[in-house]
Write a structure and sequence with these properties.
The protein is an alpha+beta fold. The protein is built from 14 helices and 36 strands. The strands form 8 sheets. The protein has a 7-stranded antiparallel sheet. A 6-stranded antiparallel sheet has the order 3-2-27-26-24-20. Helix 5 (214-237) packs antiparallel against helix 8 (275-284), helix 5 packs antiparallel against helix 13 (446-472) and helix 10 (332-363) runs antiparallel to helix 13. The longest helix has 32 residues, at 332-363. Residues 1-36 and 635-644 have low confidence and may be disordered.
Length: 644
């Protein structure tokens, strides 16, 4: 005879139906399909779910779930996330069908990344004890940073771009925000209810909001126009008809009689050096970099227009872990921090840009090169070259140095000194004045020019960003609900009966419309109010088979558990069958044997006299055809031997 005994007997608890009904009412983001999957007779239950949603039907629960229940499915259960089975799930929004899992096309809600390698865990072996875990958890259900199974380290993303159209503000968002997603790294939760105590824990790492903004994308180019304008202004000032060139025109075109000699200057070339390369460095460096506020809350990538918001920095206390139950991440307080961070980051950009431009201007060189002809009385003219050069800061008086004057001409000191005095008075002074007339207004106007570009971007971006974020998604950390709510990592008193939900991260899409809800790393546990030993059949197990010899019958032992000292009446095959009576032993077990049970399907019902609780199981008595075949084969062999 072969049977499949149950490991744990079925027990009855006070008001199990009321417990189940109360659990169904106390929902977590309406993720109640999993509760209904438990057997009606289960008095304790554990369910760990990597991904939970109000769009998951019963037949898809096991794709993301481990579940245990007493008495229907006791024990420990540890399962990987079945990504393939979730691939067909769609979120149905008012005018949009959105796949729950992204297949690489960018059209789904969740690009799982490392979440695809995560697990769920459930354990329920006693009526008043249950443990559930989900996410980055080990085979024992404990949160484990190394439990990803060697999977991808890439963060998961929640793609929200397609929800922007659901807000009916496409015209605005397309200009300001054209892509939006959340990014999350390690994630896990665990919950335990154990008789009078309960506790939970969770972890969330690296939670960010990524926004692509055409405004930020154009900011680099618009500020680059200011940068390039500096080069255009200064190079133009020394070009033909430029301000600096024009200021020297009379001196450079007129012969001057110094008494001791006549002096002619020209041809003349004035140039700006080191400026274009410095401005190019600013365009390719700072204006293609990522700028942040002091706290690192907001990062603006000027090269691709991406804004990254580190939501951990936005939460009070600056951490995602150890937060009170039901902490809203995107709230008026955090959005104000984001707005302030944006303002600081953009202000930091204009300050840095101002500093670098000022440095580039002051360190740019100005060089004047001209021919020099000196004709003393009664002798032939002597020719040479005259060079005046220096940094613009030298001409502006901000560097602490003077421009250089170098005359390459063969003259006696009695002639050279008057010529150099003439150059200093009639050329260097107006050159210095003209440089100041061009550069000083340029420097003093940099702040206004830069803020004039950046401020409109900030003024447009901040309200749209804060308004769109809380309209598209609500994000809750340590989401808890149930009669045993607000459990922390320290064991706390729990009033039984108890049920408890915790999601490490809970999302509500288009929250004002309550369009769809998704939980990541959700643990659910439920236990009974009070344990009462009630009758249970532990052997034969439901659907088991008892072997009988061919053409014969089999004795069938029936075993179970119950309240010590109570009588149990066991009936085989209903009113037309036979019955046996047993008394439950001190260890809570009982047993009877039905002799000579015919082959076929049978039902056993046990009733405990003290509380009229019942238990039922089905089994079958089957003839051992394999034994018949073996016997026949032996007989044939014997016949062959005898014949020989």
């Amino acid at each position: 005879m072969a049977t499949k005994p149950l490991e744990v007997g079925k027990r009855r608890f006070l008001t199990p139906k009321r417990i189940l009904a109360g659990t169904m009412v106390s929902s977590l983001l309406m993720f109640q399909t999993g509760i209904a999957s438990a057997a009606d007779t289960d008095v304790s239950e554990a369910r760990g779910q990597v991904i939970s949603s109000d769009v998951l039907s019963l037949d898809l629960l096991e794709a993301a779930t481990s579940e245990a229940g007493v008495p229907s499915n006791p024990g420990e259960h540890y399962e990987p996330l079945n990504v393939g089975a979730l691939g067909a799930v769609n979120l149905t929004l008012p005018s949009l069908q959105l796949p729950l899992i992204d297949d690489g096309s960018g059209n789904g809600l969740l690009d799982l990344g490392a979440l695809g390698a995560l697990h769920s865990y459930a354990e329920a072996t006693e009526p008043t004890k249950a443990t559930a875990s989900a996410g980055l958890v080990g085979a024992d259900g404990a949160i484990d940073a190394n439990a990803g199974g060697g999977g991808s380290s890439e963060n998961a993303t929640v793609e929200l771009t397609r929800l922007l159209g659901q807000l009916g503000v496409d015209g605005l968002t397309d200009e300001v925000i054209d892509q939006l997603n959340l990014e999350v790294g390690a994630i896990a939760s665990t919950a335990t209810l154990d008789a009078g105590t309960g506790k939970s824990d969770y972890t969330v790492a690296d939670l960010k909001a990524n926004v692509n903004s055409p405004l930020v994308g154009s900011l680099s180019g618009d500020l680059g126009d200011v940068v390039n304008g500096v080069g255009t202004t200064l190079n133009g000032a020394v070009g033909e008809n430029g301000a600096i060139t024009g200021a020297l025109e009379d001196v450079l075109s007129t012969e001057v009689n110094l008494g001791v000699a006549k002096v002619n200057l020209g041809p003349t070339e004035i140039s700006i050096g080191n400026l274009d390369s410095a401005l190019e460095s600013i365009n390719d460096g700072l204006l293609q970099s990522t700028i942040t506020d002091t706290d690192g809350l907001v990062a603006l990538n000027l090269a691709d227009g991406t804004i990254t918001i580190d939501l951990e920095k936005a939460v009070a206390g600056g951490t995602l872990n150890g937060l009170p139950a039901n902490t809203e991440v995107i709230s008026s307080a955090t959005l104000q921090k984001v707005t302030d961070g944006l303002a600081e980051a953009v202000g930091s950009l204009t300050d840095q840009l101002n500093t670098e431009l000022t440095k580039a201007i002051n360190e740019a060189t100005l060089t004047l090169e001209t021919g020099l002809s000196v004709k003393p009385p009664f002798v032939s003219a002597t020719t040479g070259n005259l060079t005046i050069d220096g940094a613009l800061g030298d001409f502006l008086g901000t560097s602490g140095a003077d421009p250089n004057v170098d005359a390459e001409i063969s003259l006696l000191p009695t002639l050279l000194n008057p010529v150099l005095d003439f150059v200093a008075d009639s050329l260097v002074v107006p050159l210095t004045q003209s440089v100041g007339a061009v550069v000083n207004p340029l420097l003093s106007g940099l702040t206004d020019s830069l803020t004039g570009v950046a401020t409109p971007v900030l003024n447009t971006l901040s309200p749209v960003l804060s308004g769109v974020l809380d309209e598209v998604v609500s994000v809750t950390i340590n989401k808890q609900s149930g009669s045993a709510a607000n459990l922390g990592t320290e064991s706390q008193d729990v009033t039984l009966p108890a049920d408890f939900h915790v999601s490490a991260l809970a999302l509500s899409l288009l929250p004002r419309a309550d369009a769809a809800n998704v939980g990541l790393a959700t643990s659910y546990v439920r236990i009974a109010e009070e344990e009462i030993e009630t009758v249970a059949i532990t052997n034969p197990a439901p659907g088991s088979e008892v072997t009988a010899p061919a053409g014969g019958t089999s004795d069938v032992p029936v075993e179970g558990t119950g309240e010590p000292g109570e009588e149990v009446v066991v009936v085989l095959d209903g009113d037309d069958g036979t019955s046996q009576t047993a008394t439950v032993d001190e260890d809570g077990t009982w047993s009877v044997t039905f002799p000579e049970v015919e082959p076929g399907d049978h039902t056993v019902v046990a009733t405990q006299s003290g509380d009229d609780s019942t238990a039922e199981t089905d089994f079958a008595v089957v003839e051992d055809t394999d034994a018949d075949a073996a016997t026949a084969a032996d007989a044939d062999t014997d016949a062959d031997v005898n014949a020989t």
